[in-house]
Amino acid sequence: MSTSAALPPPPRPTSGARLAWLDALRGLAAVAVLLEHLLSWFMPALRPYWFNLGMYGVLVFFLVSGYIIPVSLEGRGDVRAFWIGRGFRLYPVYLLVAAIVLVMAVWLPVREQVPRDLAGVLGHATMLLDVLHMGGLADTMWTLSYEMVFYLLVTALFTGGLHRRSGTLAVGFGAVAVAAGLVFSAPLLKGSWPAYVAGAVFAVGMFCLISGKFRVTAAWVLGVTAVLLTVFSSFVPWLGAAILAVMFTGTAIRRWEQGSGRLWPVAAATVLVALAPVWSPQAGWWWVQPGVWFTTIALAGATFAGAMALRERRLPRSLVRLGLISYSLYLLHHPLLKAVSAVAGDVRAMRPAVQVAVSVATIAAAVVLSLLTYRYVEVPMQRLGRRVARRWSQRPSSGDSAYSPPPSSGVSDERSSSFSLPTG
User: Fold this and answer.
1) Which residues of 337-368 are buried (b: 16+ CB within 10 A; e: fewer)?
2) Name one GO cellular component term (predicted).
3) pLDDT tens, 274-285?
C-alpha cells in the first residue's frame, strides 16, 4: 500500500486495461473471501493462519473501491446519476440474497445477531448494518456498511469541492483508527435508536440527493452522520476508521496516478492502519495480532500494486470474468455454505477425499449461481439504472447548488460494483 514518493506517476492506461485489472482484483478478492469461509468450514487443515484470507480479500476490495468510486462520481459530475447507478448496482442482488436467507429460515434459523424488529429492517434498508452494531441476514453484508459510509462521505466532499484531499483524509482516518483503538472498548452509542435516526436521515437525505432539493445540505448531513456512526456506533470503531483510511488510500493512489497528489500520505496511512489494533482492547482475535495483521495488510497492498503495475498487460481471462460476478459471488457463497453444511453434515469430520469433493462442488455451485444472478439480475438492473439516470438527468435540480467541477479525465466505471467490495 506504500510506494516511494520519489517515483513519477505512471502513464495512464487505456480504459479497457484499467477495467480489466480492476475486475481481476475483484475476482481474486472474491475468491479469497470464499476460500476463507469454505476452508474454515470444510477443510480447516488447509486454512492459513499466518495471514487472514478473508480480510486480505476485503482490503483488496476496499482499495479498489477507493481507487474507482470517487472517479466514477467525478466522471459523471452528477450526484443524482451516481446514486441512481449505485442503487441499481447494489440493491437488486442484496435484496435477492436477503430474500433467500429469509426463505431458508424455515429450515435454517437466521443467526441471533440479526434484530427481529424495525431497527433490523432499517439497518438492512440503509446497508449501514455494521456501523449500527447489528448483524446482517448474510454474514458478508457487514462490509457493505463501509462501502455505503464511503459513498456518503465522498458525495459530501464532492458537493463541497473538497474531494481532492484524499491523502489528508487517508491519514486523518488512520489517526482516528489509532485513537479509537486506544480509547474505545465498545460502541458508545447502543440500542435501537441509532438505527431509527439513521433510517430517517437516510430516507430524507436520499430524497434530497435524487430530487436536487437542498442537495449540498443533505449530502453533508448524510456524510457526517455516517462518520459519526462509524466511530461511535460500529462494532469495532478502530476497524471502521481503518477501513475508511484504506479506501481513501486507494483514492490517494489514483490522485497520484493522475498527477494531482503525492504518495507520502499512502505510506503514512498504511503505518497508521497497521498500528490501529496494536494497543486496542478490541483486538483479541487471532487475525489482528501484529504479525498476522501486518502480513495481511502487506499482501493486500502488494497485490494491488502488482495488479496496477501489470494493468497494461493481458490478464487471465478467467480472473477478469470472476471479477464481473464478484458481487454476486461475495454475497451468495455464505448462504450456500450454510445450506451445504446443513445437508452434508460436518464435512470436517469426513475423509480428505470427500472434503475435497464437497469443496470443489460447492465452489462450482457458487460460481454457477453467481453467473446466473449476474446475467439475469445484475446486468438487466444496471441497464435499467442507466436508463433511469438518463431520464432523471433531464430534470432540473433545485435548492442548494452543488459544486460543479471542471471537466474530468476520469472515466466512470458503469460495470464497477461495492466489497469494493466487489462494488468498487
Assistant:
1) bbbbbeeeeebeebeeeebeebbeebbeebbe
2) membrane
3) 999 999 998 889
